[in-house]
Design a protein that fits this description.
There is one protein chain. This protein is an alpha+beta fold. It has one domain (13-110): DOPA-like domains (Alpha-Beta Plaits). Helix content is 28%, strand content 26%. It has a five-stranded antiparallel β-sheet with strand order 2-3-1-4-5, with helices on one face.
Length: 117
């Protein structure tokens, strides 16, 4: 594992991508559903396939600066070993998934080729 940057609340909007596999599907599904209900957030589909730059199955939670300081520690406390990517939404996908990417748990290598047209 490389140096992992801790999440910083310095942008207006974010995605949290909760990564999982078959064995952790129920945990990830429950975590995402709970986050959506507890914080009133939009939770995306629970993808049981690799989507976009993501190297594992994932579920996306969309949130803003207003929920950052409560959601991120809650995710850290409840992730039970799952890796979670938190990144800013600035309009620059490459920067969002590199410069503005933060991890809870182990970092994973993203496939950034789609952003390097």
């Amino acid at each position: 594992m490389t140096d992992v940057k801790r999440p910083v609340n310095s942008h207006k909007a974010y995605h949290a991508h909760v990564y999982f596999e078959q064995a952790t599907l129920p945990l990830a599904t429950s975590l995402c559903e709970q986050a959506g209900e507890k914080f009133g957030l939009k939770v995306g589909r629970v993808h049981q396939k690799n989507v976009g730059p993501h190297p594992k199955w994932s579920c996306q939670i969309t949130f803003g600066t207003k929920h950052f300081d409560q959601l991120v520690p809650w995710l850290e406390q409840n992730r039970e070993g799952l890796s979670i990517l938190i990144h800013a939404l600035t309009g620059n996908d490459l920067e969002d998934h590199t410069i503005y990417a933060y991890w809870l748990g182990d970092s994973l290598e993203l496939d950034l080729s789609m952003f390097r047209g």
